[in-house]
Amino acid sequence: MNTTSSYKKFQKVTKVNVDDVEVIACKSHFEDLADKLKCAANKIDQNTTDNKTCKQEFLKELQQLRIDVNTRFECLQSKCEKQCSQTFETNTERLARVRTCCNELKKRIENHQ
Predict the structure, then answer these.
(1) pLDDT per residue as tens digits for the range 47-104
(2) I need a surface site. Which of 11, 16, 53, 67 has the fewest CB within 10 A?
(3) Which residue from 69, 46, 66 is spatially nearest to 58, judged by alpha carbons?
(4) Nearest C-alpha neighbor of 102 from the set 94, 88, 91
(5) pTM of the model
(6) Separation of alpha carbons 82 and 2, rounded Å
(7) How far apart are CA 64 and CA 12, in angstroms?
């Protein structure tokens, strides 16, 4: 084989036809995809920021709820303790009166015997 014929065969094999219209369409399509990916990345960033903000607000509100529940519980506990104290004090007074009454009746009975 001679060099000229090999070179011509090589040119045929390596000859590439480029369709400029198709290249432009592909570039345009890739640019659209890049824009969509950039838009999606921006939305992801915003959602990540919103998620962090929501988490912080939730934890803050949860902590406030705990404070409010504790305050309410302490108020109810104090009220119950006061009512309990009053109830037992009233019971003690009533029992003392019953004891006094019983003692008086016992003395009457003893005096009449």
Answers:
(1) 999 999 999 999 999 999 999 999 999 999 999 999 999 999 999 999 999 999 999 9
(2) 16
(3) 66
(4) 94
(5) 0.55
(6) 117
(7) 79
